[in-house]
Protein 1
Amino acid sequence: MIVEARTVEFDSLPLDSGATLAPVQVAYESYGKLNAARSNAVLVLHAFSGDAHAAGISPETGKPGWWDNMIGPGKAFDTNQYFVICSNVLGGCRGTTGPSSINPETGCPYGMSFPVITIGDMVRLQKMLIDRLEIERLLTVTGGSMGGMQALEWAVAYPDRVVSAIPIACTTRHSAQQIAFNEVGRQAIVADPDWNGGNYYDRQPPARGLAVARMVGHITYMSDGSMREKFGRRLRGKENFGFAFDVDFEVESYLRYRGSQFVNRFDANSYLYITKAMDYFDLTNGHGSLTAALEPARARFLVISFSSDWLYPSYQSQEIVRALRSRNCDVAYVELQSDYGHDSFLVDVSEQTELVRGFLASTFEKAQ
Amino acid sequence: MTTHAAKQAFVRELLGRADYAIIGEIVEANTRVLDLGCGEGELLEWLAENKGVEARGVEISGASVQKAITRGVTVFQGDIDRGLADYPDQAFDYVILSQTLQQTHHPRDVLREMLRVGRRAIVAFPNFGHWRVRFSMLLSGRAPRTKLFPYEWYESPNIHFLTVHDFEELAARERMTVERRYFLSGPRRVRWLPNLAAEVAVFLLSAVNTM
């Protein structure tokens, strides 16, 4: 499969906060080929800690993309048929402008002088990329978690540009519980002395704080059932308790490992900015009700949730579906049975694959 | 010519079911159709392909919903007893309830909702007044088991048992207009004594005020 990694630059991006960011770079990858009618483009939107590398093997790291099981020849997003695009979000740290980028005015990384961004800003930048690629209408916009939130924003902000949307395991606005977990992560980072007010790019980064934030995150992505199955109360490399505070249990070892791995690839300030953007996201903002907010939406929708996802519970997806139905929109919905919690959309993809394949095929056929 | 002739012929069964054949005849082309308890969406797919309808479905079984979506039909996983509240009034030309009324918790409320969200309702149900059901109960002294009611009483999904007369009575009491009624025994139409002879009844209803 052809994996093309590219970066494009735009002169400026107006932000919801009133600030303007200039210039802005966007890193993106694409897979498959755009057809002559330019009607087979799929925009894949990554979740909180994802990046533009959604599929194939990265020539840089040698690692498969975060949705490699869904994107590729013969897969759900079949690259023999569709042209798939994925870009790193605004505020990210994997090639798109974010707090770790150099502020041209100072010659130093933005750090906390980076403006606060929103999901709407991320989508506005993606739309500029799609304009640059000269794609008039996207066959679908899709993603899980924060990616699903972006897909919803796309359907409302640019209804003429999307034929369909597949928001997975997401919400139209964070609940108190979701904000609470994000806040714990942010506080873990800012409580680390190495964070230093966000100025750490020339010294030791707040690795301990970021690792703890990631550990909390990982707990919320799994489920009681998947953790019981994966770890149980098994001890790590020992027969008996150590009667000390180093690693006893497998689950402790796993979380520490995932935390320590994360700091190698993610910027702590990006963590702050992106989680804030997620918490601010509220599709109903300024509209009174979700039904009113969805008024512009014209896309065909496939909404998917997972039974064991307690971070983005099914009731949040059902709220989206109910509001769309009350607008008489074309919306299909199913709750898939899975034990993998919020991570299901990334790891438990066999049923999701069938759904997406069928939905995309019928959408493509109707759109021709 | 042959295709035309084939289309003119009376369809006795559609997708293996006589009630589907009737529903396929009733539904006019290029309308908006909601099928409640649509299973894997076979009927909706047929209606979309052959009548150009805008098809929607509601189904409680996740596995069935998956199959329906996979075949390109727009289906929402939900409960018919509660699931219609979100639809605006008169959103559909037809709301179909095929062989499911006897499985709902509140059949009367479901019928009212059908005629709120749809201009017309098509209801197909197994007739508990069929002579075989009556004989089965009379002779065995046990909960009847027939071809149409094949379940043991303790595992039957059917929780309300109704006859053709029962349905007519409820429709009248609810001031619903029966525009058409069809009675079936297997793939054959029944003309006489439908409450005794019909295995399945299909009613086309509308609200009184739309007439």
Protein 2
Amino acid sequence: MTPTARTIAILNRWCGQADAVDRTSEPLKELWARTKDHHSAVPFFDSLQKAQGAEQLVDALVQEFRKEPARKINFDLTNLNPSGGTILLVDDLFVAIRQSPPDDETEAKAWLSPEAHDALVSDIVARLTPVIRESIAANPQKAGKDGGSE
Amino acid sequence: MNLRSAFVLLMALPAMAFAEEMPCVLGPYKMLSVNRVAFDCARTLRSISGTATIRAIKSDGTVGNVVADGPLTLIQDANWFTVTLATPIAAGADFEITLQGTANNQAFDASKIKVSTKPDATISVPIRQNPSSFRYGRELWLSASVEVQFPPQLDLLSEDAPGVFVPHRAEVFAERSEVQQTGTARLTFKEHDAPKQLNSRMKIDGLKNVLGQDVRIKLNKRLAPASSPKDKDSSTYYAKLLHQAGMNSKPAFILDGKAAPVFPIASLRDIQLRPSATSDIGQGGAIGKTKTNDLIQFSFGIGRFVRTEHLGIVQGVDPTAGFTYETNYELAHKNALLTSEAQWLVAGTYEPLKEKNFVNYVKQRNCDGDFLRAHSVPCDKSLQPQDAVQANFGYELHFYTGIETGSQISVETGKASSGSSKVNIPKYSIARLYPKVSIALDLTHRFALTMSGTGRYLFATENVYREHDVLSTTGGDPTKQVYLTTVSGFRPSGEVGLAFALDDAGHYALSSAVKVGSLPPNFVRVATVQTGLTVKF
């Protein structure tokens, strides 16, 4: 699962409702309020002392991303404060998770998603094919020898 | 309508009756390669099929012929889908893409979205950035819609002074574990080498995207709204100058200035060389009859910012230790000092207008419902920082402590401002301790009220000279006579200023300041008002 897919799964569990996350531009506070019949309905973030909803979410994210492939969650409860915080929407949370560094950055550098891998391969093929064709057209005899077709 | 058209329409009716709007809020897109584009549905997307048709947008804004098309494919694990085009599309152009097909097993009406293959990128602070913290600048994120070929290191140039682009070397980390990360990378700077002015314009040289174009940071996109240092303490370069000249009068001038550039030494664990030159003097004409501050200092120090966030309220300490040569305009004092000053960065003391405007920008761009309702503004994903809702009040507090120890290095002569009276000033020892507080209040983006106070305590008695008027026995004008005296104990000084910014960022301002108290080396008690043009960076 990608970091975003894991985050959606956490949000659904946090809300106590499968497929709770439908619109990623929805504020986390509104998501929590909309699904109040499925969870403890504690305040999301009324104040720093009454922020159990946000606290549960951060705790759940920290727990989840301790598992492999792990990430160091580098934001905290105060970032989810609807007045003054900067992680307000589901989309913001996706970004915050992506901006939390993987535990092993070196490994992650070489990790391509299937889509990115396919794109890379098709890009290389698209760029090299005309070059190879031109090369063959320019020197068909040598190409034949190199290809071992004689 | 002929019979055939009516029949075609009749056959299409069931499909038309059940077609709905596409269940996506199409916005962000990523160009993975020359012929593959990915779109964010931003809604739950379980399945999608259909086709995308791409038309070029001409320079006059009209839509041209179809240039490419391709099928829609769902990306697993995300609410994104891709379009793989039969032919590559051109770089550096704008296109309109029409999507048609079925999503979540429901046919949808044709949806249109505009995409661009221009090589624009944006730079932003991390989303977790807390506006009242001092973590700004060390970590930035570059984001582009077209995939970028990132090198391990990158030079980001920021316009630290008008027209002067200063390179800052960044370590690049570009993770690609999901499609949303296309075109993005984290830029991490060394402590001493982070861009200092995040409201400046930025450039990157030599970075190419997968379409072979040079990536550029859009010049009209600032990382933060324009702003400038508020007072002399927080400025790197500061000058307030007043000059007056006329017939039968000595030219008068006031120079309140500072130049304190910083030179980092990368090989010495972020230690910085910090030379500085400071003056607060006024001489000549009417100024000669009014007591003004009379301080000139040249310093050479080394320092290093130390993060102390783990200790709680004090988030950082920035100490500087070094040597200072201190004198006055008449060169009647020549003090050699070992000095040490520390700035204490305290949580919750930094909420200037630029930070508040930046938070407003983030909230409006991110469609924060409470914010949009409170300010009656629409959500705007393409909002630029300078167009965000402007706050009208901000504040910042700076705390310092310092020690000055040394001595006057030679016997000097104090002379009267007119006449021939003079006095010898013997050598003396110096041992001073001071706390200093400076407060800046932003009152709209045009006005700034600044206050600073220094409570200097002199542990050693220092020699100073004063002058007074002596009446002439022959009935002429009184003459000036100087005499030696001493100072010790508590010698506070303070300043209250009001500035009116002449430009948006506030680098140039008309300002007026009331100065009271006494400053080294001669510790004359002053109570003066100075008004002039201030330039600060």
